[in-house]
Amino acid sequence: MLKGYGMLDIKFIRENIELVKKAVHDKNESSDVDKVIALDKKKREYQFQYDTMRAEQNEVSKKIPELKKTTQDTSEILKEMKQISTKLKTISTELSQISLELENELLNIPNIPYKDVPVGNEAENEFVHDWGKKEQFDFEPADHFELINSNELLDFQRAAKMSGSGFVGYLGKGAQLERALINFMLDFHIKKHNYQEVSLPILVNRTTMTGTGQLPKLEEDMYRVDADDLFLIPTAEVSITNLYAQEILQYDVLPQKFVSNSPCFRREAGSYGKETKGLQRIHQFNKVEMVRFVRPESSYAVLYEMLQDAEEILQALDLHYRVVKLATADLSFASAKTYDLEVWAPGSKKYLEVSSVSNFEDFQARRASIRYRNEKGKVEFVHTLNGSGLATPRTFISLIEKYQNADKTIKVPPALMPYLDNRRIL
RNA sequence: GGAGAGGUGACCGAGUUGGUUGAAGGUGCGCGCCUGCUAAGCGUGUGUGGGGUUUAUAGCCUCACCGAGGGUUCGAAUCCCUCCCUCUCCGCCA
Predict the structure, then answer these.
(1) Is any atom of strand B within 7 angstroms of residue A3's beta carbon?
(2) Which nucleotide is nearest to A86 if distance is taken from CA to C1'?
(3) Which of A48, A99, A226, A422 is exposed most, by the fewest CB atoms within 10 A?
């Protein structure tokens, strides 16, 4: 039989059809809730039939060895059993088919937005707060394209030569600055917030991708290695969250907090024309990611805590930013509530999204079957959360634009000096 | 990639001439008893998921699960096939 774990709890869907439909609508998804309900009903009917018949079969089968011992003729009864067996096989086949169908439909039902998430599209995103302010220059600040060129920090052309457009190479001081940034962020989370650093596979299987909710919806956005049916992760969230997949954790194992730097791969299918030039939207980039496994009752407090963990990085770099609470249609498929961090890029004169901090509640835990024993010893799903802390490329943009001098040289932010030989100028 | 060994419950470990074994035994853990503490001892309990019944996440009935998926059979942890994983040796590459 199929495992049949899934997504949203089927019982919950059964009992909250309208709520689930509203979530689908608000999130602008196209999942078929009615079909799920119908399949669920059908499945239970078949299940009942199967169970009943199987019980009969089990019972008779138990008696057969004894009948044989008492030298009775069993051919008649075996003939009957053969019929049951055949019928059972038919039902079983249909049952697994229905189960599979149900599972597939279920996988397409998104998580339900938390109650305080504004309904609507991007326009309804809610300003939460900001920090610092837009800096004033006594010269006209250059944008990052100019700074990158004059300092020879990156090379898009040569990267394209080996991988096509949308890839970037960091050169010399650019590479050093990126590495400094990554190391700084990792150390910060590890030392200041007690995250445990991990370094995990960036090539993962289909089950893993499904566990965190990237599949089946986003297959088009993923790079796949056909020969082995493995996928390049779009974020370290995938590997880290799946660390505990298919496990039941003891009560005191929770909470757990992990941080990891990893390359992230995104095909960005269908987003041509949307800021596709430069560093803003590329197929491969580095990101420091935080993931937490917590008991359900604490997940919203932890969500806010993680948001602050991410904010503190920007504060330490003295970069002005604002926090936005995402509206339903802007939420990811798996998220119940998400805060975005947008950093100010003074040369480009716009805010850039550098972090997303989300609570998935038990959505991913259900898919990946990550459970724990609560205080009473009962098995429950954990809650998972993650947040970027932070994505490198856009942080890089903001950084060089903010720390530029009139002569286009770049100051090293004080926080990064220890990582750059204590230089003042990059 | 080739050869061999193996994948059983929280853990260790039986079971591989198919049948009442969801699974002996042990450890651990829970509860109770006993002993002035500790140690030991005695009793008892201890998987997950689905379905049905139910006011009920109580109880009861039932089904599934012994790496995964198929097959043979009245009946499979036990037989057959495919795949995955672990270990050892060889080869290959670092």
Answers:
(1) yes
(2) B74
(3) A226
Q: How far: A5 CA to B28 C1' (Å)?
A: 30
CA distance A281 to A292: 26
* ipTM exceeding cut-off 0.90 for this assembly: no
Residue A88: which residues within 8 A CB-CB, separation 6 or more? Answer: A50, A53, A54, A57
Per DSSP bridges, beta strands A247-249 and A370-373 are parallel
A79 touches strand B (CB under 7 A): no
For A122, A124, A289, A348, A394, the CA distances from A351, given in Å and listed in that order, are: 15, 17, 21, 9, 10
CB-contacted nucleotides of strand B (7 Å): 10, 19-20, 47-52, 57, 62-65, 69-75
Residue A285 CB neighbour total at 10 angstroms:
20
List domains and CATH numbers for chain A.
Answer: 10-106 (1.10.287.40), 122-419 (3.30.930.10)
Under DSSP, the state recorded for A327 is P
Give A22-71 pLDDT, tens digit per residue: 999 999 999 999 999 999 999 999 999 999 999 999 988 888 888 877 76
Find which nucleotide's C1' atom is closest to A99's CA.
B50
Check if residue A48 sits with its Cβ under 7 angstroms from strand B: yes
A373 CA to B42 C1' distance (Å): 30
In whole angstroms, give the CA distance from residue A425 to residue A395.
18
Contact by Cβ (8 Å): A147, A170: no
For A132-154, the DSSP string reads: S-PPP-SS-PPPHHHHHHHHT-E
CA(A3)–C1'(B29) in Å? 28
Q: Is strand B within 7 Å of residue A203 (CB)?
A: no
d(CA A227, CA A223): 12
